[in-house]
């Protein structure tokens, strides 16, 4: 039997240097954790709340996880972070552009109730200032674009280091969402369309970055408990049973740490070395219950 086909050889991330935006909480924290547990050399976690980042680094492993406060909607801030990583390590192998925010939601009737009138629907939606809508794009789409630009050269240097093996090329993974495929009435127009944007942006980058040998892939999670998803979770599981109806999620539960961990190890390790321009949906089957474009 070939040793290269064992799970240990295929799915480890030994020596990887990664940057995870939004790495101090929720899905980003799950990602930082699984990378460290499986051999990462250094994982920089980025976010606006320094205390939260520092606690995350302390909890996982402060020798490997480095808390870097920053804002992905600020070009200067991201460039500064890339400058720090350049001076401390000199390269990265993996950028996980994961920072994201929910967006304003339209009026939605309670189950069994009649839809709001046009006047009510419009008045409710128009109460949201346009800046709140575009802020969702600023974090979820523009933030991914500028973060990727900031780290392109460090990703290219990562390829020269070849520390992940000769056939493994540097990679950007954006955390998009199944929301980017969903037409669910009542969901946030700003959030879902920003996620459709980032999924397409990654596919475009996968093509545009071929000359630079940088791969781009997408993680599209379903429902995972987090600050961002707390509104959704409270609506779907008000009694906090930890179970979800089959009609909502065929897997009958929200996603958990292991679900993100498995997908990230696949994407980031030798096992996923041939992925480029891919979308990995991890949703327990949720998309099959929605009107969607997937
Ligand atoms: N949970 C789900 O069900 C679900 C499903 C599909 C996709 N996702 C996606 O998963 C990603 C992570 O979300 P989550 O669910 O884990 O929620 P979360 O715990 O609220 O994580 C969002 C993270 O993004 C960071 N962030 C927000 N704005 C930022 C900014 N301007 N600059 C830097 N960092 C910023 C936050 O840190 P600071 O506030 O400290 O900056 C936070 O750590 C998001 O892209 C989200 O859309 C989540």
What does this structure look like?
This protein has 294 residues and is of the alpha/beta class. The protein has one domain: Rossmann fold. Helix content is 41%, strand content 12%. The protein has helices spanning 7-11, 26-37, 50-60, 75-88, 118-126, 130-161, 189-208, 230-236, 257-268; strands at 17-21, 42-47, 65-69, 94-97, 171-175, 215-221, 279-282. A seven-stranded parallel sheet has the order 3-2-1-4-5-6-7, sandwiched between helices. The chain is globular. It binds NADP nicotinamide-adenine-dinucleotide phosphate. Residues 21-22, 24-28, 46-49, 52, 71-73, 98-101, 139, 175, 177, 221, 223-224, 226-229 line the site of NADP nicotinamide-adenine-dinucleotide phosphate.
Give a brief description.
Helices cover 41% and strands 12% of the residues. The protein is an alpha/beta fold. It has one domain: Rossmann fold, CATH 3.40.50.
Write the layout of secondary structure elements.
Layout: H1 7-11, E1 17-21, H2 26-37, E2 42-47, H3 50-60, E3 65-69, H4 75-88, E4 94-97, H5 118-126, H6 130-161, E5 171-175, H7 189-208, E6 215-221, H8 230-236, H9 257-268, E7 279-282
Parallel strand pairs: 1-2, 1-4, 2-3, 4-5, 5-6, 6-7
NADP nicotinamide-adenine-dinucleotide phosphate (NAP) is lined by residues 21-22, 24-28, 46-49, 52, 71-73, 98-101, 139, 175, 177, 221, 223-224, 226-229.
Protein name: NAD(P)-binding protein
Organism: Neocucurbitaria cava
Family: Belongs to the short-chain dehydrogenases/reductases (SDR) family.
């Amino acid at each position: 039997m070939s040793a290269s086909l064992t799970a240990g050889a295929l799915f480890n991330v030994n020596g990887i240097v990664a940057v995870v935006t939004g790495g101090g909480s929720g899905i980003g924290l799950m990602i930082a954790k699984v990378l460290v547990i499986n051999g990462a050399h250094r994982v920089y976690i980025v976010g606006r709340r320094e205390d939260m980042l520092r606690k995350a680094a302390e909890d996982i492993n402060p020798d490997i996880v480095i808390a870097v406060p920053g804002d992905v909607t600020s070009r200067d801030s991201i460039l500064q972070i890339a400058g720090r990583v350049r001076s401390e390590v000199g390269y990265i192998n993996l950028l996980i552009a994961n920072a994201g925010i929910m967006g304003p939601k339209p009026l939605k009737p309670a189950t069994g109730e009649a839809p709001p009138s046009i006047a009510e629907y419009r008045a409710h939606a128009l109460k949201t200032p346009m800046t709140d809508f575009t802020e969702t794009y600023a974090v979820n789409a523009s933030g991914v674009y500028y973060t990727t630009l900031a780290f392109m050269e460090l990703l290219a240097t990562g390829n020269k280091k070849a520390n992940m093996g000769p056939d493994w090329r540097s990679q950007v993974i954006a955390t998009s969402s199944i929301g980017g495929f969903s037409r669910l009435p009542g969901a946030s127009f700003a959030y879902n369309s920003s996620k459709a944007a980032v999924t397409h942006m990654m596919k475009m980058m996968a093509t545009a970055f071929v000359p630079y040998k940088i791969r781009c892939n997408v993680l599209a999670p379903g429902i995972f408990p987090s600050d961002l998803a707390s509104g959704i979770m409270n609506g779907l599981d008000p009694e906090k049973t930890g179970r979800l109806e089959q009609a909502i999620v065929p897997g009958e539960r929200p996603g958990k740490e292991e679900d993100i961990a498995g997908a990230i190890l696949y994407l980031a390790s030798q096992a996923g070395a041939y992925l480029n321009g891919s979308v990995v949906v991890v949703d327990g089957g949720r998309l099959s219950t929605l009107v969607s474009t997937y």
